[in-house]
Specification:
Elements lengths: L13 H14 L70 H4 L10 E7 L7 E7 L17 E3 L10 H7 L10 H4 E7 L5 E6 L5 H11 L139 E3 L3 H5 L4 E6 L5 E3 L5 E3 L1 H8 L20 H13 L9 H15 L1 H8 L41 H9 L6 E4 L6 H14 L7 E6 L7 E6 L2 H10 L3 H13 L4 H8 L7 H6 L18 H9 L8 H11 L3 H6 L17 H19 L12 E8 L3 H14 L1 H4 L17 E3 L4 H14 L3 E8 L19 H6 L2 H5 L3 E7 L17 E3 L4 E2 L2 E2 L5 E4 L1 H9 L3 E2 L2 E3 L1 H13 L5 H21 L14 H13 L10 E5 L3 H17 L7 E5 L9 H11 L19 E5 L13 E5 L10 H8 L4 E4 L63 E2 L9 E2 L16 E2 L25 H4 L11 H5 L5 E4 L1 H8 L18 E3 L13 H11 E3 L21 E5 L6 H19 L1 E5 L25 H6 L16 E2 L18 H4 L2 E5 L16 H4 L10 E10 L4 E10 L6 E3 ...
Parallel strand pairs: 6-8, 7-9, 10-11, 13-14, 13-15, 15-16, 16-34, 17-34, 22-31, 23-25, 23-26, 24-25, 26-31, 36-54, 42-43, 42-45, 43-44, 48-51, 53-54, 53-55, 55-56
Antiparallel strand pairs: 1-2, 1-4, 2-3, 4-5, 7-12, 11-12, 18-19, 20-27, 21-28, 29-30, 32-33, 35-37, 38-39, 39-44, 40-41, 45-50, 46-47, 46-51, 48-50, 49-51, 52-57, 56-58, 57-58
Helix pairs in contact: 8-9, 8-11, 15-28, 20-37, 21-37, 27-28, 28-29, 28-30
Length: 1940
């Protein structure tokens, strides 16, 4: 029971060891107890649980019988005397048979159902009973809870918890073990006549099925609605039993083993406990001797800490089970008894039959303490009399209840039940726990709870393991559940515990076992058990002993009442002074605590304490010493500090000097006088070159977090839930919500203004310079916030195209439910405003919660999806700096690391002398709150330290002994720092005083002392009240302005950040920090008076987070410091240690013990900081290295990977003195560094510059320090195990511990599973029936360490989100000038500029423009035209990468744009066909066959037609054969429809093709058909389920765009003929059918029209495609045209003659209106891959058809880098991998061995001619006047060759070639229209090249012979070639020759 250290003699008394040995022998029957003396020398103390049963021994009977006989034959207990034993009747004599009760009205409680029980003695009848439906299986035989809960329908008795007990009651008379599976046989129901009849049999599955059920339930991760835990109120709302100090560490088995964690579903009702009068421990098997007991006790050091909760005052959760109504003290000093169901077994209430107990008068005055009574088992008697001096708490009772509420998976398993701990065992374990507490330790409820859990797990090892057996290794995942390893930590392998080794602990054994345990601690724990007949008697004895002074040395009195036939009762009376005070103060709620403190100050109760502290004993008192100080009148300026109170100013004016000061004082005084701040600011030489302010900069890691936020927003938008349509927003607006702190408000405004976000979002004008403008976007969450958010909601409702971001900063501050808060309070506003229905349903409002402590928002009822959490990343991964930061974050984890290093003064420490003085005064003033006492002592220490350090008081007064070393060090450093810098930079001391009243008193007191000492210009004292603006003296304000180079005369600092380098003491008040950032000049963080009562993780970490710091990361130059100067390491990798002035004379015993397990933490990446944490060098230890771990997260989090880093060993020149030498000044508590002159280099002359490279020191209360630095059994700091927040409760006591290996995400999932919101939490109402989650889809959570830069990150996120929205609203549009513009000859104006439609007669008179102007064709052969005048430089050309270098412009999308699949606004849902509210649109596949002459065979196409589009088609019958597309008549017109079908050929662009024409068509109905290749049919159908698809035949899978257009045109003409036939059959005119179709490219995004009426000339504006098409379709003479189109957009499109002419004849591309009737005889070339449209238009024009381009309209084409018909890859047949194949390899000689290519032959030929034509046609290169004659087709011969197109068709229109000499002749598949006579019309240059192309060699020869080519052309055998295709791929052949 004592301390255990390896190899040391244990300090336990011999009697204690003797007792332990006797106890072990009494408990054991198999293991020989160890000798007494061997226990005195233990290598390491191990709790030795003795076990007396082996695994194969029989299990205990289910009823817990204490029989000694083996339980093989089952024996019913004899019924009580006088009971009915008749079959079919219950023991009360009531009939249960179905035949008797069939017509009786039966009352069935809610949740129960009637069941028929099969009795072996009544085979023909069933017995009727009511059973809780949760314990019955469903129709599949699953989901039955283990255990039983039933009622008797005869006598009406309720609450049977065991089927064994129930079978006795209904007289089943069984000979075997009662099993509900055997005897609960049928469901019962009432038929139509209302008669109860037998229904379906109950489907019980066997053991195997049950095992599967258990294993599946172990993996559940969320509570369903019917699995709400009963003990939300009983999860001890996390009040500690005490304030702090007790870090008991029971060795609970680590329940997270090897990453394989089972997840039990939630704890079920606590009703599954033993019935009255029976021990609820599973108790194994009574033996002849005394009972065996496993738990010997726990010693503080040997026990590894458990998952401890923390204590909090909050109302109980409304969702708690009805069996546990209220067990938490609701912030009051007395509470009503908890109302409990009588079925609670040993915890059931008893009506208080005993007489009331009178509390003695004068109890507090006599004993100087206020006893605390902990309810235990049974009801306390009523107290009367002086009840105000006694406190009653139900925390212990709630712990008992929650540890008996078993998880549902453990409630019953086969014949061996898993039972909770019995009452007796709980009491005994409580005694053990109290015994091992130290005299100054306060009991923590979390420790006791974990002791219970460990004991329970040990006693059910085998049963628990059975649940884990179905878990195969393959199924191992991260589940958090209850698991028990084979061996316990601290136990040797050979002593692992076998199951079933525990005897039941009987009530009769309890008193003497408890007495035995208590006897080892002397009088610390007194047990009242023997002869105590009731709790009332025990309490009376306790009060009597207290009044008699017999409990002076007793901390706890345990009262145990055991009576035969009655349940065991107990309670604990706390009688220790320290413990009572801590417990009493912990029963205040935070607000009550502040009220009590204010009351004590206002009523003058604390005056005695203040007077007492002012006295310095023989040295006088503080006030008199201060009055003796004389300050020069010209030095102390009342105006220098604005914070002197009026009464102090008046006293200052009336004070007269009394004594003179010493010469030493004069010297100091004169030096100070010469350094007045006003003179400092004016002196140019007093500048500090090392001063810099960097907090305005955006750091790389902040940019990374901003991008993570943006990616999460995009993920919401990209999901199929349609919760956020980013594409519909064109701008961002925002509102930042901050806590009601003026400094936080101004700090956020400052960050916002500095970030430039407002200008970026367009919220402010560029010229606006007032920071006040930014205040419109930040709002404090006080009563004024309501109107601001209401305005935002109204704006969001009216501006649907604006995305509103609500940033909820410091989001953990207010999580209160609005229904629980008063209207005057600011609490509950977040719930009222952010969780309102208007905000929730607004599709354009996105909420971003930002917090350092997200735990309160991570519960079972959270509104934030785990996928929407963003965690701050680690800056380092595997020793690699990921972000190259100038600074390194030093947070809570690093602070804890520094406390674990043993060779240096830790940055986080406690002040032992302060603690001892405060403890003494707490005993002297028992009625005062400890916070008042500690604050008074602390301020007195500061006052005395100021007096001592100022040297104004004579040294004979020996002031040093009246303050602590730590305080004196802080003050000396504060006063001397500014003297060492030319600009007088200093540092900040943070004094954290939560009570505003105490803080105001402290401020007044310190200001008075400062003024009387004449130090008003040395440092500022700042009052940090969250409700007030910052108030800084004018002198110091001027100083800051000079440092920051601020010219504004009205400027004043409004944030703590602006106090950078100002020497000051900041007194920060308020219940909790509200997000205020502190400057990097913070050097000391004094938290010695923060409250220790509320031990939640959030509360502790946000106080420690004040010290979080960005340490300067750059290495510094080494130097050789002189005596007294700072020690600095020359190793650049090592962060510098702190000044010697921070060193403290500590005894070895006083220094904190280093932890054996350094803390590790891990962000999501699993990485860890690579550099060691900075530490403070101690002069006493200079050797050796320390293993330290540094972290990048502030929340203490588990680490995914660990590495050990050693400090570099400093060289000898770094040691200022030998290790053994100590400073002489330490005897006076001064330091050498603080008062000695600087002798170091100027580089380190500024104390501030040195300080930015080291984090601040933190001083904590001793009790809090002990808790924070202790580790639990998982190696994590214990504060991680505390309840995360006061507004949540643990879902179960049976939860696992947090694991070291958990990432931030896994921690979130842990809290989401194991915490539930209390009824006062805003998420408690977030439950929806039938859903496992109720996440808000547009809610994000950003969590990161405190002070790490989250504000800058989310501000940058707002900027890049705005840029992205603008980017989403913009597209890259091809913006290129027309090529070949020199060909445009100035001519007459054919149409007036404002002509609406072209005149066919005028169009025929216009010359056809053969020149190609589209810039995408700048690399093809120009078409010869006599009027063409080529430019001298030609067109800039590239070969393959034309696409990549084309010029584009960023254009904002208009409201008439076409979209790809990523756009899904509300209007488009039905159009696109995949709205989640509707079923996917059904489509049917239809075949369509037609014959084409040129193909010589039937063509079979497939249409995929959605049901909603079938009206565009005609069928032979509904659902029958597809007959064709319905076409309108020429005379039809509708303002909301387009007549022409739109065909869009596409490939490879199922996601990026612009097929969504809903907005482009402005809602008009239209027929849009996507033409896709067969192999892409499925993917296009998936992405565009509501679009009609035309699937090309399989043979066209490798074809080009020519094939698609060919089939579209031929299909359309065939359909036109069918429609005309149908019209004729119907009696209509055949020629009136609309003959036009639209061929559109899949990258057409917007359309424009030229406005000729604009003031400044023609202006283009966006129009809808509907407007363009309706205008063109309305052209009166449209039928005269074969092809119409529009021009391509260019930003310079308004220039030039062509654009002023409204219509022109020439080439048109990309968007065509084709007349399939007039162009019937001109087909697209189905074999073409490139330039097919140039070829088609040339042939169309030569056939005499009119081509018209509407120049008043233009089409914008989007740059799409994916897919398209131009992306053909040329690869070899040997491999699918693309290889580099040059154009020369595209052809080869026939019959030669050559590398064949897997590319279509026509594509190879086109590419060959394009790239090698200068070799093929050498005379044609750059020779425009001698073009190559191409007959009947246009082929691209490269940009250097000009092609002259002629048609051989009769009556065709060709250019005049008279006098033209051609440099070549190209005959591509010449048909019969090409004759020798036709060719003889043309003249050729000598040496001109002939190229004849054919499908095979024989056709080539036939062509040469038929055309008599050999007469004028010379051929050689080597001039015959073929494309590099295999024979089966049908290569093309061509023959070349030279003109003779």
């Amino acid at each position: 029971m004592g301390n255990s250290y390896a190899g040391q003699l244990r300090t336990t008394r011999f009697e204690e060891v003797l007792h332990n040995s006797i106890e072990a022998s009494l408990r054991s029957n198999t293991v020989v107890p160890r000798p007494v003396f061997s226990q005195l020398y233990l290598e390491t103390e191990q709790p030795l649980p003795h076990n007396g049963r082996t695994e194969n021994e029989d299990e205990e009977e289910e009823d817990g019988s204490e029989s000694n006989s083996p339980p093989i034959p089952y024996q019913m207990k004899p019924p009580p005397e006088g009971c009915c034993t008749t079959d079919g009747f219950c023991q009360a004599g009531r009939d249960l048979r179905l035949s008797s009760l069939a017509s009786d009205p039966l009352e069935v409680p809610p949740g129960f159902m009637l069941v028929g029980v099969k009795s072996p003695s009544l085979p023909d009848n069933l017995l009727v009973c009511a059973v809780d439906r949760r314990f019955l299986p469903d129709e599949r035989g699953r989901n039955a809870l283990l255990g039983f809960s039933g009622n008797c329908m005869g006598c009406g008795e309720k609450g049977f918890r065991y089927f064994t007990e129930f079978s006795n009651h209904i007289n089943l008379k069984l000979s075997t073990q009662p099993k509900k599976q055997k005897h609960l046989k049928y469901h019962l129901y009432r038929n139509s006549q209302g008669v109860l009849v037998k229904g379906a049999p109950i489907y019980w599955r066997g053991t195997d099925g049950r095992m599967r059920q258990v294993s599946s339930s172990l993996t559940e991760s969320h509570l369903t609605t019917d699995e709400q835990p009963p003990n939300q109120a009983s999860s001890h709302a996390s009040h500690p039993l005490g304030a702090a100090g007790s870090h008991v560490e029971p060795q609970v088995a680590d329940t997270l083993t090897n990453g394989n964690h089972a997840v039990p579903s939630a704890v079920q009702s606590s009703s599954h406990q033993s019935g009255p009068g029976r021990p609820s421990a599973p108790g194994p098997h009574a033996n002849a001797g005394p009972p065996k007991k496993r738990h010997k006790g726990w010693s503080p050091e040997s026990s590894a800490s458990s998952l401890a909760e923390s204590a909090v005052k909050a109302p109980p959760s409304s969702s708690a089970s009805s069996t546990v109504t209220s067990v938490i003290t609701n912030g009051a000093k007395s509470e009503p008894a908890a109302s409990q169901s009588s079925s609670q077994g040993s915890l059931s209430s008893h009506p208080p039959s005993e007489l009331p107990i009178a509390v003695p008068d004068q109890l507090l005055q006599t004993c100087r303490l206020q006893p605390v009574i902990f309810k235990g088992h049974g009801s306390l008697p009523q107290l009367t009399g002086n009840v105000s001096e006694v406190l009653i708490s139900s925390l212990l009772q709630s712990c008992y209840l929650s540890s008996q509420a078993l998880p549902r998976v453990y409630q019953h398993y086969g014949p061996s039940p898993i039972q909770p701990l019995s009452t007796e065992m709980q009491i005994l374990l409580t005694v053990y726990y109290l015994v091992q507490l130290g005299p100054d330790q306060v009991p923590l409820i979390e420790d006791l709870e974990q002791i219970f859990m460990r004991s329970w797990r040990e006693s059910h090892l085998s049963e628990i393991r059975q649940f884990q057996q179905p878990q195969t290794p393959g199924a191992q995942g991260r589940h958090y559940g209850i698991e028990t390893p084979a061996t316990f930590p601290g136990l040797p392998q050979h002593l692992s515990l076998p199951p079933h080794s525990q005897q039941p602990l009987t009530p009769s054994q309890l008193p003497w076992l408890a007495q035995l345990a208590a006897s080892s601690c002397g009088e610390s724990v007194v047990l009242l058990a023997e002869g105590v007949g009731s709790l009332a008697q025990g309490l009376q004895q306790t009060f009597n002993r207290l009044m008699e002074g017999r409990l002076e040395n007793t901390n706890y009195v345990m009262i145990i009442v055991t009576k035969p036939g009655q349940e065991t009762q107990s309670c604990v009376v706390v009688t220790g002074k320290h413990q009572c005070r801590a417990l009493a103060e912990s029963m205040f709620s935070p607000s009550e605590r502040l009220k009590e403190i204010s009351h004590q100050l206002s009523t003058g109760v604390a005056q005695d304490l203040i007077h007492f502290c002012n006295s310095l004993g023989q040295d006088g008192d503080v006030d008199s010493l201060l009055d003796s100080v004389i300050v020069d009148s010209n030095e102390a300026s009342p105006s220098s500090s604005s914070q002197d109170s009026p009464e102090e100013k008046s006293s200052q004016s009336t004070r007269s000097p009394k004594d003179t000061h010493s010469p030493k004082d004069s010297q100091t005084q004169s030096s100070k006088d010469s350094l007045s701040p006003k003179d400092r600011a004016a002196s140019p030489k007093d500048t500090c070159l090392e001063y810099f302010v960097e907090w305005r900069e955006v750091r790389p890691i902040q940019l990374a977090v901003a991008r993570k936020l943006l990616s999460h927003v995009c993920a919401i938008a990209d999901s199929s839930t349609q919760n956020l349509d980013l594409g519909s927003f064109d701008r961002v607006s925002f509102l930042i919500l901050v806590p009601p702190s003026e400094v936080t408000f101004q700090q956020t405004v400052l960050h916002l203004w500095s970030s430039g976000v407002l200008r970026e979002l367009g919220s402010l004008d560029q010229e606006c310079e007032s920071q006040r403008e930014a205040e419109r976007f930040v709002v404090k969450m006080d009563q004024s916030a309501q109107g601001r958010i209401d305005n935002l909601i109204r704006e969001a409702h009216s501006n649907s195209y604006t995305l509103y971001i609500l940033v909820h900063d410091h989001a953990h501050w207010d999580v209160s439910s609005a229904s629980y808060c008063s209207s005057e309070s600011s609490l509950g506003l977040v719930d009222q405003l952010l969780n309102s229905r208007q905000v929730r349903e607004a599709a354009n409002i996105l909420i971003l919660h930002v917090t350092s402590f997200p735990f309160a928002l991570q519960t079972q009822c959270t509104r934030i999806s785990p996928y929407n959490e963003i965690h701050w990343p680690s800056a380092y991964s595997n020793d690699v700096d990921l972000y190259h930061e100038k600074t390194r974050y030093f947070g809570i984890s690093e602070l804890l690391d520094s406390s674990c290093s043993g060779n240096s003064l830790p940055l986080m420490r406690y002040d032992s002398s302060f603690e001892s003085m405060a403890s003494t005064l707490e005993e002297r003033f028992p009625k005062l709150h400890s916070t008042v006492i500690r604050t008074t002592v602390l301020i007195q220490h500061y006052c005395v330290a100021l007096m001592a350090a100022s040297s104004r008081i004579s040294s004979c007064h020996n002031l040093h002994k009246h303050t602590s070393v730590e305080t004196l060090e802080i003050v000396q450093s504060l006063l001397t720092a500014a003297q060492q810098c030319p600009a007088h930079h200093g540092h900040m001391v943070l004094l954290r005083i939560p009570s505003s009243a105490l803080a105001a008193w402290a401020h007044r007191r310190l200001c008075r002392v400062r003024r009387q000492l004449g130090l008003e210009e040395s440092f500022e004292i700042v009052m940090g009240n969250p409700n007030q603006a910052l108030n800084i003296g004018q002198t110091f304000t001027d100083q800051i302005k000079s440092w920051l180079k601020i010219q504004d005369t009205d400027w004043v600092p409004r944030t703590y950040l602006e106090l950078e380098a100002l020497p000051c003491i900041l007194i920060l008040s308020g219940t909790e920090p509200l997000g205020e950032s502190l400057p990097r000049s913070l050097k000391y963080c004094d938290l010695r008076v923060i409250n220790c009562c509320y031990l939640q993780r959030t509360t502790l970490e946000q106080e420690l987070g004040l010290a979080a710091y960005l340490v300067k990361a750059e290495s510094r130059l080494p130097h050789n410091p002189g005596p007294g100067s700072d020690q600095l390491e020359s190793d650049p990798e090592k962060l510098s240690s702190t000044d010697n002035e921070e060193e403290e004379a500590r005894d070895n015993g006083e220094s904190p013990k280093s932890s054996t397990q350094p803390l590790q933490s891990c962000p999501d990446s699993g990485a860890q900081d690579s550099q060691p944490a900075p530490s403070v060098s101690s002069p006493k230890v200079q050797k050796g290295t320390v293993d330290t771990h540094s972290q990048s997260q502030s929340q203490i989090q588990p680490q995914g990977s660990s590495q050990t880093f050693a400090y570099p060993q400093p060289g000898p020149h770094h040691q200022t003195q030998p290790p053994g030498q100590s400073y002489s000044q330490h005897s006076k508590s001064t330091s050498s560094g603080s008062l000695s002159p600087r002798s170091s280099s100027p580089h380190l002359s500024c104390s501030w510059a040195r300080g930015v490279s080291r984090p601040p020191s933190v001083l904590l209360p001793r009790a809090l320090y002990d808790i924070i630095t202790a580790s639990d059994s998982s190696g994590l700091p214990r504060c991680t195990s505390f309840l995360p927040h006061m507004s949540v409760a643990w879902a179960s006591s049976f939860r696992p511990l947090l694991s070291k290996m958990m990432t931030c995400t896994e921690q979130s999932l842990y809290y989401r599973q194991w915490t539930v919101p209390r009824s006062s939490h805003m998420d408690s109402s977030n439950r929806t029936e039938g859903r496992s989650d109720n996440f808000h889809p547009r809610r994000l959570l950003l969590s990161g360490p405190p002070q790490v830069g989250k504000t800058g990150a989310y501000l940058h996120f707002l900027g890049i989100l705005s840029r992205m929205l603008i980017r989403l609203m913009e597209v890259d549009i091809y913006d290129e000038e027309d090529i070949n513009t020199s060909a445009q000859v100035e001519g007459a104006q054919y149409h007036p500029p404002n002509t609406l439609w072209p005149n066919p007669d005028i169009m025929r008179t216009m010359p056809f423009d053969y020149a190609i102007h589209d810039p995408k064709y700048d690399d093809i052969s120009s078409v010869y035209c006599p009027r063409f005048k080529p430019s001298a430089e030609g067109n800039p050309v590239r070969q393959e990468d034309v696409f990549l270098r084309r010029r584009t412009s960023r254009i904002k999308l208009s409201k008439y744009a076409a979209y790809n699949t990523y756009h899904h606004c509300e209007q488009c849902h039905q159009y696109l066909g995949f709205n989640p509210r509707y079923q996917m649109y059904e489509s049917t596949l239809h075949a369509f066959t037609f014959t084409h002459v040129s193909l010589g065979e039937e063509i079979q196409l497939y249409f995929i037609i959605p049901k909603s589009k079938e009206h565009y088609f005609s069928f032979s019958q509904p659902g029958g054969q597809l007959e064709g597309m319905r076409l309108p008549l020429t005379s039809d017109w509708s303002p909301d429809s387009i007549k022409s079908p739109i065909f869009t050929p596409t490939t490879g662009r199922h996601e990026h093709g612009l097929f969504n024409l809903y907005h482009a068509m402005d809602g008009a109905s239209h027929l849009h058909i996507l033409v896709v290749k067969e192999y892409e049919m499925a993917v296009y159908k998936k992405y565009w389920p509501n679009h009609i698809m035309l699937v090309l035949p399989t043979v066209f899978n490798g074809a080009g765009i020519g094939a698609a257009h060919f089939l579209i045109k031929e299909l359309s003409y065939h359909n036109l003929e069918l429609e005309r036939s149908r019209r004729l059959e119907g009696g209509g005119p055949a020629g009136d059918v609309w003959p036009f179709i639209i061929l559109a490219d899949d990258s057409c995004v917007m359309w424009n029209a030229v406005d000729l009426d604009a003031r400044n000339g023609p202006v283009e504006h966006a129009v809808s495609l509907k407007q363009v098409l309706q205008h063109m379709e309305a052209c009166p003479d449209l039928a005269h045209y074969g092809l119409c189109g529009i021009r391509k957009w260019s930003s310079r499109g308004g220039t030039g003659n062509k654009q002023r002419e409204p219509f022109s004849r020439g080439h048109i591309h990309d968007f065509l209106l084709l007349n399939v009737d007039r162009s019937q005889n001109v087909q697209y070339d189905q074999n073409r891959f490139t330039c097919h449209d140039v070829d088609f238009i040339l042939r169309l024009h030569s056939a005499g058809l009119l081509v018209c381009r509407f120049n008043t309209f233009s089409v914008m084409k989007k740059q799409i880098a994916i897919g398209g018909y131009r992306t053909f890859i040329i690869k070899t047949k040997m491999t699918d991998v693309p290889t580099s194949v040059g154009p020369s390899q595209y052809i080869c000689a026939p019959d030669s061995k050559h590398l064949f290519l897997a590319t279509p032959a026509h594509l190879l030929l086109e590419k060959y001619l394009q790239h090698t034509s200068q070799k093929l046609f050498p005379l044609s290169t750059k020779n425009y006047t001698h073009p190559v004659l191409s007959v009947d087709c246009y082929l691209n011969l490269g940009h250097e060759v000009t092609v002259c197109f002629v048609s051989s068709r009769p009556h065709s229109f060709n250019i005049s070639t008279t006098g033209l000499l051609f440099s070549g002749l190209l005959l591509c598949f010449p048909d019969t229209f090409v004759t020798p006579a036709f060719l003889k019309k043309f003249a050729f240059l000598k040496g001109a090249t002939l190229c004849v192309i054919g499908v095979d060699r024989s056709s080539l020869r036939q062509t040469v012979g038929r055309l008599e080519l050999e007469e004028e052309w010379r051929f050689r055998l080597s001039d015959e070639f073929q494309t590099a295709n295999a024979k089966e791929d049908r290569p093309l052949f061509f023959l070349t020759g030279k003109h003779i």
